[in-house]
Amino acid sequence: MRQSIIIKKIEIMEEPKEIQRLRGMVDGKPLPETLKDQIYVLLDRVSRASTYGNYSSEYEGAAKYIEWIVSIPWETYSNDNLDLQNAKVILDQEHYGMNSVKERVLEYLAVVNLLHQKQVSAKTPILCFVGLQGIGKTTMARSIAKALGRSFERISLGGMPSALELLGRSKANPDAEPGLIIRSLVKAKSINPVILLDEIDKTGNDLGSRASVMASLLEILDPEQNATFRDNYIDFPVDLSQVFFVLTANNLGTISTALLDRLEIIKLTGYSDEEKETIARDYILPKVYANTGIDESKLIFTPDVWPLLIRPLGYEAGIRELERVLMGIGRKAAKKILENPDNITTISIENYKDYINEI
C-alpha cells in the first residue's frame, strides 16, 4: 500500500503548494505508519479535487485535520524525576500536612523506580482526591506534576453537558474539533502529562448526560482500554496509558460504581485552626510578598493577630478564603507604599479589621 501511495505522489507533478506544505508536515513527523498512509490517501484525494470545483472545502477540512494530527505528541515523553527526596522536598514546600497524600505519591515513585531498574513499565495509578472545597486538591495535583517533572493540564468536568466535550466530534461536522483529552495532550506537548479531571462529581446537567460522561471517563481511565483511546475527530487510537490522571470530588455519591472501582480514593480532611495558622504564615504569606512585590520589612504581622485572621468569616475547612484575605491585605499595603515609600504596614489585633473589611 505504501508503495502505491509513493507512486501516486510522484505522478502528481503539478500539485498545489498548499498540498505540498501539508505533505511536508506529515513527512517530518514521527506519526504511526498506518496513520501516515491514511493521510497520504486523504491528500491524494484533495489533490485530485483541485482539478475540479470542490477544492477549497476539501482542502480546508484536510488542512485542519492534519494540523491537529501532527500537533499530537505521539512519541514525545517527558523523563520522570524519580528522586524520592526531591519529590518529598517539593511536596513539603508547597503543602503543609496532607501526609497520607504525600506518602501515596512517594510510594508510587518508589514502585516506578524499582520497576525502572528492572526495565519494566509501571502502571500509572488513578488518584481521586475527595474533600471539601479549598483544602488543596487541585494544588496537590499540580505539585505531583512538578515533583515528577511532567507537564500539567486541568480539565473542568463541572457542569459538562455531554461526553462529546471529552471525546470530540466527528470530522464530518463542519466545526468539529478534538475533545478535551486530545487538546490537553497537545498543550502538554508530551504523551505522559499529569491531567487533572476536576469536579468529577458535578458533571452533567441531568442523569442522562452524567451517565454518558461517566461511561466516557471509564474508557479514558480504564488501563484495559485507554491504550487505544479513540477520539471521534482524530479517529485513530491514541495511547493514554502513560498519562497520570488525578480526579477531584467533593463527595462520591454521583460517581458510577464501575468508575469508582478503577480509582484510588484519597480523602482530604479540613485543616484545624492551628494548621491554618501555620499555612498562613509559612506558605501563603511568602506568596503574598512575591505576588504583590512588597518587601517583607514593609508588611508585618504581629504573632497574636493570626488567630483572628484565619476566621474572618467564620469556620472554613479549606484555605481559599484565607488566601483572599491575605492577598487583600497585601494589595492595601502595596497602595500605601506607593503613596509613601517609607510606609511600614503592621497588622495587629488593634487594626486588622481595617484591612479585612470589604475584601
Number of strands: 9
Biggest sheet, spatial arrangement of strands: 2-3-6-1-7
Spans of at least 5 consecutive residues whose pLDDT stays below 50 are: 3-13
Number of separate domains: 3
* SSE string: HHHHHHEHEHHEHEEEHEHEHHEH
> What integer value in Å does the Rg equal?
26 Å
Termini distance?
67 Å
Would you state the CATH class of the largest domain?
Answer: Alpha Beta
CATH topology name of the largest domain, in short, is Rossmann fold
Please give the CATH architecture of the largest domain.
Answer: 3-Layer(aba) Sandwich
Provide the β-strand percentage band.
Answer: 5-15%
What would you give as the CATH superfamily of the largest domain? P-loop containing nucleotide triphosphate hydrolases
